Each structure stands twice: as C-alpha cells, then as structure tokens.
Automatic annotation (TrEMBL):
Organism: Zoogloea oleivorans
Keyword terms of this UniProt record: Membrane, Transmembrane, Transmembrane helix
Protein's name in the database: Efflux RND transporter permease subunit
Gene Ontology CC annotation, any one: plasma membrane
Keyword Transmembrane helix included in the entry's annotation: yes
MF GO annotations: xenobiotic transmembrane transporter activity
Amino acid sequence: MKRFNLSEWALRHQPLVRYLIVALALIGVMSYQKLGQSEDPPFTFKVMVVRTEWSGASAREVEEQVTDRIEKKLQEVPFVDILRSYSRPGESVVLFVAKDSTPTREVPDVFYQVRKKIGDIKGTLPTGTRGPFFNDEFGDVFGNIYALTGDGFDYARLKAESEKIRAELLRVPSVAKVELIGEQEQRIYVELSNTKLATLGLDVQTVTDALARQNAVAPGGYFETKGERIYLRPSGAYDTVEGIRETRIRAGGREFRIGDIATVARGFVEPPAPRFRFQGQDALGLGVSMTKGGDIIAMGGSLKETVARLQAQLPVGLELTEVSSQPEAVQRSVSEFIHSLAEAVIIVLLVCFFSLGLRTGLVVALSIPLVLGVTFFGMRLFDVGLHKISLGALILALGLLVDDAIIAVEMMLVKMEQGWERSRAAAFAYTSTAGPMLSGTLVTVAGFLPIATAQSSTGEYTRSIFQVNAIALLASWLAAVIVVPYLGYVLLPDPRGPKKPSWLGRRFPRLDAFKDRIGLGDPHIDGDEDAVFRTPFYNRFRALVDWCVAKRWVVIGTTLALFATAMVGFGFVQQQFFPNSTRLEVLIDLRLPEGSSLRATQAEVEKLEAILKKESGIQNYVAYVGSGSPRFYLPLDQQLPAPNFAQFVILTDSIPAREALRERMIELFKHDFPNLRANIARLENGPPVGFPVQFRVNGPDIPTVRKLAAEVAAVMRENNNLSDVQLDWDEQSKVLRVEVDQHKARLLGLSTQDVANFLNTSTRGLTATSYREGIESIDVVLRGDAFERDRLSLVAELSIPTRAGKSVPLGQVATVSYAFEQGLVWRRNREPSITVRGQIYDSRIQAPTVTAQIEPLLAPIKAKLPAGYRIETGGAVEESAKGQSSVNAGFPIFFAVVFTVLMVQLGSFSRTTMVVLTAPLGLIGVVLFLLLFNQPFGFVAMLGTIALFGMIMRNSVILVDQIEQDVEKGLSIWNAIVESAVRRLRPIALTAAAAVLAMIPLTRSAFFGPMAVAIMGGLMVATLLTLLFVPALYAAWYRVKRA
C-alpha cells in the first residue's frame, strides 16, 4: 500500500497551501506585535523574609530567644533548602530559601506554610516582640525610578506632592504599583529637660497622660430625635502644634503650660529611616513596577508622557527626574538583538542565494519569515516574551530552521537535475528525506531538553532557549515538507534547460566558474542521472572519502587523539557562571564597621558624592543610605537594610565610560575611605551571586568561627587576583552597660523595667499620642533635650523619678560602664556562619579559576578543623553547580528521547549507538574555538554545547539513513558509504554553513558570545567529521570490505 506523502498532498491542494502561507504570516505578525517585552525572562525568587522586633534585647538574646525558635520551626516546611538569618539588637531577620528544584507552582503554597508554621509558635516568642512580619515580594522589579527634589522643600511637602504623582502614575496602563523610596515619617517632638522635670517635681508619665487624655478620640454620644440623629463632638483634639504647647499640666498643686517646660517642634523621624539621595541632595524616590506580561517599552512611552505632564503641573522649584529607566535599557537591548537577528537573516539569505542560486535560494528564503511567524505565534501561546534570552534563542534558531528547507529543496533539485518531473521530484524528496529530517529535528530539539527540564532558577531563567528552538525547529520541518515543495514547484528553474548567465556570472565570471566546479549556484546539468555527482569536485571528494574508508583506523585513531587533546585543552578554558550585564550602571557598596550610626554612613556618602560630582561620563547617580537599592533590575543582588550600609547606583553614558569610571573608583578606594569596606561591581546576568568568590565558615562557637574565618581571609588575600577581601560580619559593637543595684532600686520602688523605660524615653523617646492632619497620623514623641541625648557622660547624672514622687540621680541606683558585645550574628541552618568574600576586578579572570587556585591552599585549614566546623565554597562556583546539577538531571530524558527517535528511524541498536558516539566529538571544535578566541566556558556556553550534540547527531543520522537507502537499492556497502557521503555533501555543508555563519552576529553579545563561539567551532569540526569520520566509523563498525 502506498504511504501517505505530505508533499504530494500539498501539491494537490495548492490553493489551501497558499491560504495557509498567508494566514500563518498574518498570525505571526499579529503575535509579534502582542509579545511582551522585558529585559530579562521572569524567574521566581524562592526566598521569603521573616522579620521580628524585640526592643531592648541584645543581638545574642535575639538570636537565642527569637531567631533560633523561628529557624527550628521553619525546618519543618516542605522544600526548605537554606535558613539564613541575622540577629541585631532588637531585630531578628530570617531568610527562608526554598530548594532550587521547587516547582514554581508550589512556591505560593510553601510561603503559606511558612506563615502558618510561624503563626503556630507566635505565642511562644518572648513577651514584647512585634511581628513576625513577612515579605515574599522579592520578584517585583521597579523598572522606572524617579527622584522628586526641590530646594527649600522638606520631606512633608515632597511627600504631599509625591502622593499626587503616585495617583497619576497608577493610572498609566501596565503599571502595577508605585512605591515611595526614602520616605521620612513626620514627628512632633516634645523635648523635656530631665533637670527641669526633676526641679519641678514632674515625671514623663504625667506629661504623657496629659497629652493622651486631651487628644483622645472618645464617643460623645448622640441625640436620637424623631427625625434625625445628632452626634455630640467635644473639642480639644490637637489641630495645630501650638495646641500642644498650650496643653496644661497640674502637678504638686501647680499648673504648667507644656510650652513653658518643653520645646515643641515639628520634624522628622530620628534617627532617619533609610534615605534616598539624588545627585548629592535629599530626595524622595518613586519606584514603578509593571504588571506581569506587560510591554515594558510601551509602558515606558506612556510614563514619559505622564511625567512630562506632571512636571509642568508641579510647584516652581520642584523637579521630577528619571533616575533609572528599564524601558530605555530594554529598547537598547532589543534593538541590538533585532539588529543582530536582521544581520543573521541577511547572512542566511546570502548563503542560500550564493550556494543555491537566486531562484532556488528564494525558495529557502521565503520559508524563513513563515517559520519565524509560526515561532512568534508559538511564543505567544506559551507566554514567552521578547527578552535577551528569547531573542538570542531566535538567532540561534535562525541558523537551524533553514536546515530542513535546504535539505528538502536540494533533494528536489537533484532529482530535477536527473531529469525527473517537478511533482515527482517533490514527492521523492519527502519519501527519502522527511523521515531522517524529522528524526534529526527531534534529536536537535532533544539537545535542548536538559534546559527545559532543569528545575532551578538558572533553568527557569534560560528555559526559553528550549521553547523558542523547539517551536522553530518543528515549524521548520512542517514548512520543509509542505511549503518548500510548493514553492519549489513554482519557483525552481529547469536545470536541464538552457543556462542563462546570472548577474553574478556576468560581473564575476571567475567566481561563477568556481561555484560551478564545486556544485553550487544555479542548477544546470546535461547528461544522465549520475552526471550530477561526476563533476571533478565531487570526484575529488569521492576519492577522499574512499581513502578514509580504506584507512579507517588511521582516521578513527587521529580523531580520538584530537578528542583526547581537546579534553586536555579543556582544562585551560576558563569557567564562568554568567557574564556581566551590558547595562550602563556601576554599583558601589559602602559598608562601615558594625555599630556605625546612620549619621556616620551619610558622612561617607556625602564625601563620595563630592567626588562623583567632578567625574565625567556620568548621567546621574543616586545613593541609598541605610539600605540597598530597590530591585530596578531583575538579577540584582538586593541588600537588606542596615544603618552601617549605603549603596550608590551610578548611571554612565556608555560601556567605555562605565569601565573607565569603574577603574577610577577601584583606584580611589585603594587609597581613600579607610573607615569602610567598599565593593565596586557591574550588574550581573542570571540569578544573583554577589561577590564572585566566597567561602563560608560554619560552626557552633562564634569565637572559633571568627578565628577560622580570619585564617581563610589571610589565604584569600595572598591571591593577587582578589581584591576587597572581607568578612560579612566580624566587629563587635560598643555598648553602655547600666548595672542596676537591685537592692537600692527596690528601696526606691524602682525596677529594671522602670530604669530601661526611663533611659529609652530620655534617648529615643516615648510616643504619647498622635497628631491627626488630613490623611496623615503624626506621632507626638516625648524625649530628652538635645544636650542630654548626645552626651554619654551625662547618663549617670540623669534624674530618675521614684514611686515616692522624688527624683534621684541614676548613678545612685546603677553603675554605668563601657563594654563590647556582638552587634550582628549571621547564621546558616541554625549555626553561626561567617562568609569570607572577595571581588575580582580583572575582567580577564573568572571566579571559578580563582576559586580553584584558593581551594588547595585551604586544605591545611580544613584538615585541622574541629568536629562540627565546616568550610564551604560559595559564590559563582556554588550557583553554577546548582544550575549544572539541575541540567544534569535532564540528561537521562535527553538520552531516552534520542535513543527512541534514532531507534524508530534507523531500526538498529548498533547504528543508533554509532550515531550517538559521534556527538561528543564536537567538543574538539568547541575547545579549539574557545581557546582561540579566549572565551570562557559558562553556563550558556554549556547549554549551547549540549544543543550542539543534537545538531551533530542530526547530520549523522541523515548520512547513516542515506547509506541504508543506497544499500537497499543494491549498492555494495563500500560504495553505499562513499556515494552517500558524496550525495549528502552539499546539504550537510550548506546547513552547517548557514548555522555557523548565522552565529556571527551573536559573537558580539556579552551574554551569548561564548555560546556562539562554542557552537561555531563545534559545528565546523563536526561537519568535517560527519563527512569523513562517520564513513570510516561505519566501515570499521560493520567490518566492510571493498567489493
């Protein structure tokens, strides 16, 4: 029975094929217009922060009584991987990190379990704790950040205007939320002199009660009449600051006005909340995030219009300035990739036209936009937007999607050259190539399977490489068996008709003659069927293949020697996780000693601002004092709030300007800013890592961990490739110990709590009531005056009121002394953990290389570690290993699919094994090109190499299948091997040329460059091996002898 022939069916239904071509092209155009655009592919941050406050407790008390209890309970949560935490005086922060393999759909339920488990133990936490509070919104990216500034405008006025701006920005399409950055809450401070209160016989509690009673909101009742309900509203609530000053207090038979005994002033929270500074002045920031799946570029255009309108409406002196614009970065990135895609299309078209001739090349060329259109439609269906990964994958796919079209049209053309009629030639092309092409396509798609199945953040980040290539390759096979036969039927020239001189032939006759000699260009054959492959060029190639078959062991031995050499050479290729981003920002982290005040941090910030003001090549710079930047870029390594930390984000004019500024800053911090540790970094690609080289020291005893960490740091500092080697925590903080004499205190009716409350009120303040002003609620805070608050030496002289109504100096009931304590305790999985980390400023050196240099030097330290202590490798090496292990988990599926497809196609386990064994030989070219072009072997290059295995097996299976077809036709095995290699020379060489040359635009990409170089080298060598090594291997495998 005759088997169904899809190409034959297409030629019998030409109107339907024409309709499908037009319909799919239109669908593709519409799908492309609806694709969302973003800078990076979305990936799930599997991290949740649990924060708890316990005022008055030391860092060690918080660690032992709060942090440890929370960590212990969180160990019961499914998918828990790492519990990291830090404890500061009065604050516990636990970072719950789920396993990288946690399915994305399970993450919300995992976070619900975290809330539920902590809720179960909330009652067991110490009395006086606030919280725990939860934050799992780590994936929100504030792509646009604006700074609202104005000379002479305080934070209150800035906030009032920012609320109006926020309301307008939320009306912009695709805007999800707008958050204020650097907001300083208002306060009304009532500053009381401790000495004056003691003299008047007053205490703070009396003042607090007076303020609270007068400002209380209490029901006054209402009259219920026959027709109406009338409420009673007693007056007295504060509506002005002067009202607070006029509040009367009675004590000791006398009446006082608060304004007479205290200074009442309106101000802002002290010490300040984390601040946002723009170009050296205090500002209020507005961060704008986009809805999921939105078009960042369209949103950016709408925001520009809205901001321009708002700027015109602002009061004179106020400026709304764009600080960070992700739409511009995406526009630049997308434009570069679209430009590279266009270049790749042109290169592929030139390959087709040059090698196949104008009309034959046009058949292949017309299939490209159709396959791209179907690919865009598939991307729309699977919710894959346009971003750096999918656009790079499109360029990679472009070199592969023409392969099937070239193979199909070449076979059709060969049969027409042999005198066959067009429709018969198209039907034969399907019969002889459709099966091997489909198998080859499925094997190539299978090469991307480990990416698809990788259960990790890295796999999620790169998954669109599989999605885009799978859609494009499957669409290209359908186009090759349906559309290409129709286009070939309509467009292919008659190879046996009179040859007309081409435009190229008329202008470059020698080039045209060369193309004829090697079997390229417009088809024109005179003679019998075999004359097609009897040209001098094919005869020379036939002789070469015949020699390879005859000298098979020499060829196999040489190939294996080259493979072994490549494996040795691979040791000289530098490893990498992900390359740095091409964004224009430079990040500078400033970290002061633990215990430093926000005031000290701001002083260092202002010093650096003064330097940056004189630097060239800078568009703008912002400083985040007391915290890190909000996530304006998805892979940003976000920093948690800390008073001793500040972060600068400096936007430069260009990549050269960024690199020049980075070099100057590196030199600056080598000689200046001795009071802090700095880190100068570019933005990263891929999941965030932070410092590229890290080693963790874990163990139960903090002093021992600190001692071991110091030894590790000493080893790291000896490496010349590392800079800014530092510990994530080390210093102790200063404290003023107030040792209460319990006997004396009880005699005076005082308790430790009374002393603590008194000291807290004198220094930090006590909230008495709230001043209500419109939508604002402003705390009224009682505290000591500035003179008493700022002088440590006066603590013992402060007068503390007793239960008898008298005041006594604090020094009579307590002893004040200076001491040190742990100001910060980091833990990992319930053990103290210190991370020793270093930065690499030489762009030629990769983190895995430096890590490999250091690890042997740590062996003596590891050998003498006490029981229970560990030194672990972190940084880029650890993250890369996570991604690598998740990809490795997909290899069984990869091999299962490859073997199944090949078994179905080849029908022989022996031939299938032979084809699979050819795949690793591509590493010869991969290593050669990586070394020649000095490119690192990173995670993306590894994905490209895995995909390369599929491409190599694709060519091998087509060649092996051709050998089997020729044997079935009656040729001897020897002749079948040689003739199959000759017949498949042109399609294999052309498909390889299209794939390799289409990679050229990608080599300029910082992200995809190493992958492009690896595939180019691997495919070039693999093509040569397919045509020469596979025939020799086949002959050796089956012990073929010349007939």
